[in-house]
Amino acid sequence: MTTNRVKLNNAGKRFTHQRALIMDIIRRGQGHLDADEIFRRAREKESRLSLSTVYRTLQMMKELELVDELHFSENHHHYEVKPTKEHYHLVCLGCGRVIEFGYPLSRYLKKEVPELKDFDIDETEIRVAGYCNLCRRTRR
Amino acid sequence: MTTNRVKLNNAGKRFTHQRALIMDIIRRGQGHLDADEIFRRAREKESRLSLSTVYRTLQMMKELELVDELHFSENHHHYEVKPTKEHYHLVCLGCGRVIEFGYPLSRYLKKEVPELKDFDIDETEIRVAGYCNLCRRTRR
DNA sequence: TTTGATGCAAATACTTTGCAATGGG
DNA sequence: CCCATTGCAAAGTATTTGCATCAAA
Fold first, then answer.
1. Which one in A80, A96, A137, B25 has a CA-CA gap of 20 to 30 Å to A65?
2. Gap from B113 CA to D13 C1', in Å?
């Protein structure tokens, strides 16, 4: 809320009500909304808001590191407010549910994997796909 | 080569020269080509080959598990022949280079992460983004 | 010969951009 | 007031689909 306003202002950006609305939707969305879904939800409140504003806001929030863009096996992305702790995703190929799990992995990787020794890690994305315990029974 | 022919035939698919060519390009591409690049390379040999054939072939190869589709931070995907051993990707945000590393992680995750206990893992994708040792010096 | 695969063109999905109008600081 | 931001429409990029023709088995 107010912290976002400060972050934007510090970056010479304005805290418009469109931006406030979009951020709020992403926050409530528990991190699993795509651009179009964010747009549809925003329109319920602000019927004149445009899809370009959604895309432009997402772009900006990525740059300011306020949100993360997640890359699932689709032709579009999903967004979530940047979490403070490390967390990753489990995608069920049966029902599409996304289960989030927190686990401190990047320190482990850095230590274990030789290729990572000389690498300055910015972010780690892990996506485990498979079938959840509900779907595995009814599979196929 | 011949093994692919057998796999296709078993699935009731035909081993066309377009498919052979596309598979060959993906194999040579060391796993870091997108659909359009595959198309451009294929056209050098088969000038009448169409982009839809590339997409249709990629789709089919994914289903037959002959290739993997990789999801980087872009609006399109990259493809590689399905590796037999576990391996993951390091993407340099400076030069765009993709460094591949092999590491047996899924057994470890399965054991360590409670959310994975009840989950039937199909595939694990890890993407570590950051700066390689060449780029980290000249960064910004 | 049969039917799955291809090329082409057109359709769809997702994202970005130009520009005049608007509104936050 | 100024200039970043917006809405709208149009363009750009990525992918899919319908259909007549072609070719693998």
1. A96
2. 39
